[in-house]
Design a protein that fits this description.
1263 residues, alpha/beta, Rossmann fold, eight-stranded mixed beta sheet, 45 helices, 31 strands, HAD-like_sf, T6PP_C, alpha,alpha-trehalose-phosphate synthase (UDP-forming) activity, alpha,alpha-trehalose-phosphate synthase (UDP-forming)
Length: 1263
């Protein structure tokens, strides 16, 4: 049945269900939406099978319809309509249909790109025709799917409809701005050079565009050809004018803003700098640069469903405030219309007032004006707006009803509503949605060189969301609260716990307050994500976690305070006088020898206030002699009274405090009261005066991230004693720093605040403990000099580790996995890991150079450190590296336990990359071209021979002018051979040259190699930006163009490949065992080719004992048997140096060569090799079939350059070309010559410019 027949059937039915999905102009009630989709799918299935279908579970219908649609037969169109009906239901009921949407996406599998290409136009048409918002809902639904499942399916939508991502992020507008600034800098440099020669300053806009800018659409740079503008060099006036464009900004993202915003009765908005802990920590960093940006929610959210008359103060048990903070209109019109301001004036006066004054008054009073004024005098404060309903569920619900108590390990305070999975799901969707909006806003504001700093538990998913939008962003996260979730967090609340663990690992770097919190996180990662790989660098105390292709660095950064601000107030004479007055007032009714205990915190159940009060009461029960002496001044600043659990806790504490005050009295001092309990906060000056007045500071939370109050106390008053609970992060920090040892306990620790007896005993010790008199078992008041000595040592430590150190340490890029630190290469694993790190750094270098962005300082530091590490590890005065293959120095077989390598190529490539970095940072428009000329110094016959070879090869490229197709081998052709494949990392300079050649001189580029795609494959070795070229791995049997466009030779079934993949995972796990880990590093290591797996069992140096090779074979045989017990699909073959697991179908097929690989991509991509010139490059006989295939199709259009000095190979290549009457062939002696020729060809003027293929997205370089 075709689409018209189905429409006819629908027309004959009166039921509204026959309207096609995404073509309805009305919204039905939720119940009708679900029923309509179900009936529609039933009808679709019935029409296809010609029998009625009663759908019990619409999820099953999704799988059935997807299966039929993927067959691409006559029923596919009808099945597609059914899938659209299910998609429409999912987008209309996002929260309710989370499982159904997941089932739909999973059913589409690898066909999702094709599905979105067909579905998105229907969605767009609905939004335009019927005013729906399906596009935005679809984007969020995919983001929610990715968060819940740890996937990245949003990228498939980008691949299907590239414009989606551009419009989401404002890519085109941002790119215009980037190019405009780059053009201005280039013109400025040209102007500077003209001025130096002519003695005049050229007007920037008077310069002709073509003199400084490559106006070709295929170039992403603002300068001609290969010229790079990466910042640095001499600072011309123009550079200074535009230098802000290239510096790194900090984009700070937090739920709470750094300001307090209030609207007065008059309608004016007032903005004041905030005083919270986050502001105190981050504001100094942000204030350093007015270009920095702070993204936060100002409390003004959209809530169109409610009016201001619906305000209520009550909340439900989750503490979700019903009160509406602001209406959507307030954001854009934030003052009331008040015509009374001009009443009583004459018409003329009104006109003048309206024109001259009233608009100005409105502007001054508007919220946007207030923000603009703030931004002009400080860093940029950008508000993030979300739905008020979502915000309530996100902030009052998940954040404070679940995450806050759970991460503090206080499960008894998790609200009971979350026992209902439907409530949990709804609020979780709101949490993800708000994180999505924060992440989207951050990406829209970010430039490539910026650092985005996310704060606290409200926004733990933004890293994953942001990096799914732009994987090149540098995003850090700091958790200000503890990370101590109870066991049920990952079981009972698995819907929340698992995504948060995965989400945290998507940040580039993560900071915890204490080692305890980091250890707990790692423990849960190991338990929940067993395939995560964890490494530790002892020298810098950093853990690195790799999972699903992402790597994250985990550090510990105890947050601190701005010491100088507190000390300035504490040292002020007026503050000292005030402190004396406070002490006299608080202790006037106490006897001699009494102590003033002072505690100040938010009125929060995490602060242990109730336990503190109970212990204070028990203290006097146990030590009645202290009645009439000691006083506890407790300030608990009330907050979150709208949350039921908080309100009850606060009421209980206040009642207990009142009971203690009335019940504990002293006959000797009748006016004395043991406690003073207040709920109003203090201004900073007053607070510090109380710090100076106290004898003992009490900071005893149940759990706290750090608790800066303890640090404030000891910085301001180095003479006071300090009581700390083990739940405070400050206690963990001080304990690890050695301030609590048996021989020297500089503070009083409360091990467990729930142990009231022990807590009371600590109060007693803090009041009177005398270390000098302890031998006589007589406790006397603590001598002031002893207390002062202990406290001063803490004071000195805290003063040396202030807030500047905290922020500087976290922002320092050198502690992350992206920076290579000085190291020693002793083992084979060290060598390969080091080279893999250089690959990561080189990819970043290539990215910023091609985009014309500044080269970060740590790039050169990383490569220099890598080079030094290798040189120092070589035998003296050689490039010979001798490495242990295992950590075990002895082996019972007496075999050679070392591997020997000549790493001259690796060292030379690092040297060239370091030189390249210097050239691209020079203030010369021809900097990269000059670098290309320096490659001649590495030519065996000298620079003159190099230049001659380059000229000859470049002449051939110039003759063709432009290539429609470019097929090339890699190793030996574009990259000189390394000592082993895992170290053959593509240098940055090579990647830049190849990428620019691909952009300007060729239309479709492909690297065809015998290596696999991944798992020590071509994608691991390449450093070119994604989309610069296609990769044909395993001789062209598997192709990769971008994450959403991959295909393979179809001679091996999906079932066989699935079994092979299962075997590969088991082999991968086996090689993680320390006993077998070295097999990962020797020879070809572990490689997953198309149709087979290769595992090295030995290398050319016989480094591996024979016994271990045999043991490896036995374990692989066991894996093959476990995966394929009947032996029908997989077989294990043993070679001289490696073991291979084949699919039997592959063994029975033809011998696949690179020519077949070109034929495969030609068929799959619909390429027409007859349409234009073809360039083929190679260096061995295995590349000749690639040349033959191209000559067979278009003999006169083929141009070929071969990298060889072998006369026999030269003859074979020449003969192959001669057979087809082709003479367009040249030979060069090394890959450096070929790269030099490609570079020279790139900077010339092109006569012919090919059209960009339809499958190529120029802006993002994606096929």
């Amino acid at each position: 049945m075709n689409g018209s027949e189905m429409n006819g059937a629908c027309a004959r039915s009166a039921s509204p269900i026959c309207e096609k999905p995404f073509q309805r102009s009305t919204r039905d009630p939720d119940a009708d939406v679900a029923r309509r989709a179900k009936e529609y799918c039933s009808r679709v299935l019935a029409k296809m099978s010609e029998e009625a279908k009663d759908i019990g579970d619409i999820s099953q219908a999704a799988e059935q319809l997807a299966l039929i649609w993927k067959k691409r037969n006559k029923l596919s169109e009808i099945a597609f309509e059914g899938l659209l009906a299910i998609l429409e239901l999912c987008l209309l009921q996002v929260n309710e249909q989370v499982d159904l949407f997941s089932r739909l996406i999973n059913s589409l599998a690898f066909n999702s790109v094709s599905f979105w290409k067909l579905a998105v136009p229907r969605i767009y048409d609905s939004d335009l025709s019927h005013g729906t918002a399906f596009r935005e809902t679809l984007l969020f639904s995919l983001a929610l799917y990715d968060v819940n499942n740890g996937k990245n399916r949003l990228r498939e939508l980008y691949a299907a409809v590239p414009g989606v991502r551009q419009s989401m992020l404002g890519i085109h507008a941002k790119k215009f701005g980037e190019k405009y600034r780059h053009m201005q800098m280039s013109r400025s440099r040209a102007s500077s050079r003209l001025a130096s020669r002519e003695g005049s300053c050229e007007d920037l806009l008077a310069l002709d565009n073509d003199t400084v800018v490559d106006d070709s659409p295929s170039s992403d740079q603002g300068s001609e050809g290969l010229s790079a503008s990466a910042g640095g060099g001499s600072a011309t006036s123009g550079q200074r004018e535009h230098s802000h464009h290239h510096k790194q900004r900090v984009i700070n993202v937090s739920n709470a803003p750094p300001v307090s915003l209030t609207r007065k009765d008059s309608g004016l908005w007032e903005i004041k700098q905030g005083s919270g802990g986050l502001v105190a920590c981050v504001d100094p960093v942000m204030s350093e640069d007015h270009d920095n940006i702070w993204l936060a929610n100002l409390g003004l959210n959209f809530d169109e469903a409610k009016s201001e008359e619906d305000l209520h103060l009550s909340t439900n048990s989750l503490g979700l405030p019903i009160i509406q903070q602001a209406r959507a209109g307030d954001v854009f019109h934030v003052i009331e219309e008040n015509d009374k301001k001009i009443d009583g004036l004459t018409q003329k006066q009104k006109d003048v007032e309206l024109v001259v004054g009233y608009d100005a008054i409105q502007r001054d009073m508007s919220l946007l004006s207030v923000l603009n004024d703030y931004n002009r005098s400080s860093y940029k404060l950008n508000p993030v707006f979300v739905s008020q309903e979502d915000y309530n569920s996100y902030y009052g619900g998940i954040s404070n009803g679940l995450l806050w108590p759970a991460l503090h390990n206080l499960p008894e305070h998790v609200v009971k509503d979350y026992d209902d999975p439907n409530v949990l799901n709804d609020h979780w969707c709101a949490y993800v949605r708000v994180n999505y909006h924060f992440g989207l806003n951050a990406v829209r504001n970010a430039r490539p060189q910026d650092f985005i700093w996310i704060h606290d538990y409200h926004l733990m998913l933004t890293g994953q969301i942001m990096r799914s939008l732009d994987s090149n962003l540098e995003v850090g996260f700091f958790l200000h609260i503890p990370f101590q979730p109870p066991p049920e967090f990952l079981t009972k609340y698995k819907m929340v716990g698992d995504p948060i663990l995965r989400g945290i690992l998507r940040f580039n770097k993560v900071g915890f307050q204490t080692h305890r919190d980091r250890a707990k996180f790692l423990e849960l990662v190991q338990k929940t994500l067993p395939r995560a790989r964890i490494a530790y660098e002892h020298g810098v105390d950093i853990y690195t976690v790799s999972f699903e292709g992402w790597t994250c660095s985990l550090g510990v950064f105890p947050v601190s305070i701005k010491n100088e601000d507190f000390l300035a107030i504490a040292n002020d004479t007026q503050t000292v006088i005030r402190s004396q007055e406070i002490k006299e007032e608080m202790m006037k009714n106490s006897g001699e020898g009494g102590s003033l205990f002072f505690s100040v915190e938010r009125f929060d159940y995490t602060k242990g206030i109730l336990e503190k009060l109970k212990a204070w009461k028990r203290y006097f029960d146990n030590h009645p002699e202290r009645k009439g002496l000691d006083v506890l001044y407790q300030i608990a600043v009330t907050n979150r009274r709208t949350v039921e659990s908080y309100r009850k806790y606060q009421d209980d504490c206040i009642a207990l405090a009142e009971e203690i005050k009335e019940s504990i009295r002293s006959d000797e001092h009748p006016e004395w009261r043991c406690i003073r309990f207040e709920t109003d906060g203090l201004q900073r000056v007053q607070l510090i005066a109380h710090y100076l007045a106290m004898d003992v500071g009490v900071v005893t939370p149940a759990k706290d991230g750090m608790n800066l109050v303890a640090k404030e106390m000891m910085v301001c008053n180095p003479s006071a004693a300090l009581m700390l609970s083990s739940g405070a992060g400050t206690e963990v920090q001080l304990g690890m720093a050695g301030f609590y040892k048996d021989e020297a306990k500089c503070y009083h620790r409360v091990e467990d605040i729930a142990d009231i007896e022990s807590f009371a005993r600590t109060f007693y010790e803090a009041a009177i403990k005398d270390k000098e008199a302890s031998l006589s078992s007589c406790l006397l008041p603590d001598p002031p000099e002893v207390r002062k000595r202990d406290s001063e040592s803490i004071n000195q430590f805290l003063c040396a580790h202030g807030i500047d150190e905290w922020s500087t340490a976290f922002l320092d890029p050198s502690w992350t996995h992206e920076v290579i630190r000085p190291s020693e290469v002793r083992q084979l694993a060290d060598f390969y890991m080091l080279m893999n790190k250089t690959a990561q750094v080189r990819r970043q270098i290539v990215e910023v150079v091609l985009k014309g962005m500044p080269v970060k300082q740590h790039f050169a530091i990383s490569l220099e450190n890598a080079k030094n590490a290798l040189e120092k590890s070589c035998e003296p005065n050689t490039t010979r590296l001798v490495l242990d293959t295992t950590a075990n120095a002895e082996d019972p077989d007496g075999a050679n336990l070392t591997a020997k390598f000549d790493i001259s190529d690796e060292l030379d490539e690092l040297t060239r990359d370091l030189a390249f970095l210097q050239f691209v940072q020079e203030d010369d428009i021809n900097n990269v071209e000059q670098f290309i000329d320096t490659l001649g110094s590495f030519h065996p016959s000298g620079p003159a021979a190099y230049q001659e070879e380059v000229s000859t090869a470049c002449a051939l490229l110039t003759k063709a002018d432009h290539f429609h197709f470019f097929f090339t081998d890699r190793d030996g052709t574009l990259k000189s051979y390394s000592c082993s494949y895992p170290t053959s990392i593509q240098p940055a300079y090579s990647a830049v040259i190849q990428a620019q050649f691909a952009r300007r001189c060729a239309q479709f580029c492909a690297i065809v190699t015998t290596a696999p795609l991944v798992h020590i494959g071509i994608l691991n070795m390449s450093t070119m930006p994604e989309g610069s070229c296609a990769y044909g791995a395993s001789g062209g049997r598997e192709w990769y163009l971008n994450p959403a466009l991959q295909f393979k030779d179809d001679t091996v079934s999906e079932q066989d490949l699935a079994l092979l993949h299962k075997a590969f995972e088991k082999v991968e796990d086996l090689l993680e065992n320390p006993e077998f880990r070295n097999f990962t590093w020797i020879g070809s290591g572990l490689q997953k080719h198309f149709g087979h797996i290769t595992v090295a069992k030995q290398d050319n140096n016989n480094s591996i004992p024979h016994r271990k090779s045999v043991l490896l074979y036995e374990n692989l045989a066991r894996i093959v048997h476990d995966v394929d017990p009947m032996g029908q699909t997989l077989t294990l073959r043993e070679g001289e140096l490696d073991l291979k697991i084949f699919t039997k179908a592959k063994l029975s097929g033809r011998i696949f060569n690179k020519g077949h690989g070109i034929r495969l991509i030609e068929r799959k991509m619909g390429l027409k090799l007859t349409d234009g010139n073809i360039l083929v490059c190679g260096d061995s006989e295995t590349d000749i079939p690639m040349l033959e295939e191209c000559l067979l199709v278009a003999p006169s259009n083929v141009y070929t350059i071969w990298v060889t000095t072998d006369d026999s190979l030269k003859q074979k290549v020449s003969s192959t070309c001669a057979r087809f009457g082709n003479t367009n062939v040249e030979f060069v002696s090394s890959p450096k010559v070929l790269l030099g020729a490609m570079g020279k060809a790139t900077i010339r003027e092109l006569t012919i410019r090919g059209l960009v293929p339809s499958h190529f997205d120029e802006d993002d370089h994606h096929y």
